[in-house]
Amino acid sequence: MPDSISLLEKARRVLEWNAVLEALAGLTVSIPGAERCRSLELAVTLDDARCALIETTEMAALEAHAGGCPLASFSDIRPAVRRAAKGALLQALDFRDIQIVLHVVSEIYRYLAARQFEAPSLSHAMHQLDPLGPLISAIERCIDEEGNVRESATAALLALTHHANALKQRMRTKLEHILGSLRFAALLQEPYFAQRENRYVLPIKAERKGDVPGIVHDVSASGATVFIEPRDLVDLNNDIKEADLAVEREVRRILQDLSTQAGAQEEALLVNLELLALLDCIHAKARLGGLMEASAPVLNTEGRLRLKQARHPLLVLNRRRDQGAGKAMVVANDIELRPGQRVLVISGPNAGGKTVTLKIVGLFALMVRAGLLIPCAEGSEMAFFAEVYADIGDAQDLTRDLSSFSAHMTDMIALLREAAPGALVLLDEPVTSTDPAEGAALAQALLVRLAERGFTVVATTHYNPLKALAQSHPGFAGASVEFNVSTLSPTYRLILGMPGGSSAIDIAGRLGMDEEILDEAVCLVNTQERAVERLLEDLQETRRKLDEDSARVAAMRAESEAAASLQKELAERQAALEKETRKTARKKVTAEVLRARAEVQSVMEDLKTDKRLVKVRETKARLAGIEQTAQARLAPAGDYRPVDQLRIGDRVEILGLGTSGVLLEVPSGKKRVRVRVGESEMSVAVSRLAGVENSDEDDHPVGRADKRRPAAGVQMSRGVQEVDVRGKSAEEALEMVEGFLDKTLLSGTQLVRVIHGHGTGRLRQVLREYLKHSPYVSGFRSGERPEGGDGVTVATLQDR
Fold this sequence. Notes:
This protein is of the alpha+beta class. It contains 23 helices and 25 strands.
């Protein structure tokens, strides 16, 4: 009989946990990191699991926003370090590997030190890293990037190397002289020299070897060439040999010194390597989460599941491998066990995805304990299960004389005896391979007992009593995998709260079963059970149509909201365009008024110099012409009310003056009427009036703001009128002063005050430059001390 430990191991096997770990190991950059992934430990407490998830989440955030952790590939230096600690001599390549590890340590140390606030959990590892500055400096001084001892490692090695090279250069010079001599021209097989046993030799023809006294070191494979060290070269070859041996002794001494230093730092080096392997593993977890488009769930210990858009991790990875770098297309489902619910019973057709759902829940339970992000949407919740048991697939064991039914029952008995409350139990079609009625009854009793013992259970079934149990028993919840009746195929969608039919006969027909057999099967099926099956199928079809309608409504709502947003944007743009148009029109009207007044002023100046009757008549005619031209140019462009419809209190526009006011008399039968402009009254010809439809101030040109009170910054009195433009920009101030002078001319006032303040003097300069050229103004001066001094400009207006 299997014990609880073997059941736990079996659960990991049937859930394909090792396949997840292999996928994780494949994303590491080092052998120690891959080893750590393959033997990944599962957290035993909720706090440990949360810490592991936080580390992975921080690493994923660094990968996304901070350029990623600078983890480079590094070798497993543990064997070399342990040999050095025992006094063994390490080779130069061993120190190159140690040097690479220490470089990675330094890079990660600096990287995490700069991101302690972004990744506080990961930065905790930084404080345990030791870059071992003296050791890496010693290695870098003696070993180059290719794993060779540098000639400059010590002064002695440099001198010995130079001496050996000088001897070899002498040897090459001597050999070149020999090769070029007439004496050896007939003796040499080829005009070159070679090395045998680190001694320089010449290739002599075999039949002429007696002509060259010296030492034979080798013979060619054909026997035609004998490699002889001439006697004249023996002493120099001996000197070179001694020089090379001296270099080797110095190199060995250097390597021994470095080995002693590395052995003394055994503990620090192994801790560094362990931390790098840990970071490599966490980095692989973050990369795996990115490949699966995964997120970190909220963990709880109440057995509560709320998985949004959950997908099987291995299916996602397989689809991504098959489809390349694009989005992995895997059907996502919501899986939920609400508070108070302990058992989720999933029904539906074969090959519809029930077992996949079981494995999703089981793998997620293991993944969160390993600090792995799970492929589901943000905001998901996952319970922390200290133990996970799974009875999935055929448990038949012929070696122990156990049938499928006996093997399943043996596992369930061991589970009830050994498992602790709070564990997750996954049952794929419990109590099958026996009489259906007895099996359903036993399965029902088993699920109820597991729920009473405090287990969280997810089970699949084809038994109708279990489907009913999910709808009626407290603490139970039901779900089904969808089956498309119209296509007779599963959709792999999980529908919560609704049982599903097995659709075995329909699926057999889709797979090609003979029609006569299917018809006979339909007749043999109990009528009542078949009716229940049909009812479940109809319910699923109705649910599917409702979901489709809901999706269409959501799409229509989104389109409607987009259209409303677009309409609002267009309305705002239209309003801005209209405002700009009104502003342009206002400037045009003002320019026309100023032009007309300038012409009037010019005519009046001419009349002052020549007051003859003829000149007066000419002047009168010219003024009439100017008036007609101005009226034509400023003709109403919008909707205006006829004069005969105007009543007292209506707003009117005074054509040709670019201003508006309030009517004080009914114009019917009159040639002139009184109009209030600002705080003043004036008599205006009826022919020059037009009724204003829109009273919005922005719809009228400059100077039409005829409210009951003066415009902001303007003070009216019968003696001197003033306008306050302090705090305004130059453009705003000029516009206010221009409109103010427009109104003031109509009231007959001679003096006006423009209050601009002292400030930087810029506003005063701009305003006085304007007044200097204004046709309204005959002169201006700074204010007296009682009037405000140089912060005020007093202007005298032209006589009308």
